[in-house]
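Problem: given the chain below (273 residues), write out its structure.
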Amino acid sequence: MWLWIIVIILLILFALDREIYFYEATHLGPRVQAWLYDRWARKYDRSKGESQKQDAEVLARPALEALRNVPAPFILDLATGTGRMPLALLKETTFNGHIVAVDVSQGMLEQASQKLEQSQGRFTLLRLIDFPLPFPDNSFDMVSCMEALEVMPEMDRPLEELFRVLRPGGFFLASRGTEASGRKSKVIGRDDFKSLLESKGFEQVEVITWWKWFDRVTARKPGQLTPSNHRTLTDILQCPSCKKINFIRAENNLKCHECGKTIFLSTAGIVLL
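Solution.
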């Protein structure tokens, strides 16, 4: 009897360890993921050095080339983590836009704030626990989501939301977890991933080898890109209560001028939705 109890406990512990440290709590929901990433945040970048060596060449510069006719791109980076994509863009001297960087984990965003400290005013950090994104349709000239779709509860909703908030003709940049990553429950083949994006409305989908665990994916939203002319988060942030876009920024909060809803900012300046 006791032997079976011990075996069951060991199996449960093994499954939890696998779920938490390999699948990054994919199946446990965004709030559990947020809690776990908060715990990992300070050490998160230590294992990312190899995959980040090509960020300028493979991520930032192709993105800026795709947006060459947009003088000041307004960009959304979903699941920004410790700010990898914003950092790559902000290091480029030709980048003159603004980045709204969103993540489920306040701890990860605090690390991003430290890394991006020299670029204050050129980015905004937003903690968002779950979808939908609090932005109107056609808000951003570019949207990105790197190394994260496979660790979201499901891929359809984030892709639909990214397509919705991207402007017609806008640029999409993401990654596909490869078979080498081992996340069998979430990894789908290149052709299937391309078909998934096309089913959400994207076109000109290209998938290329990037790094052993991820492919780089680019695409466009159909249409001709007319720059958004947005400059800050408050230009497009919808109030969670009244859905209006009319926030006034104070020192430690955003207050909706329509209904009075207050959204607080952390000491690091992170908008806490």
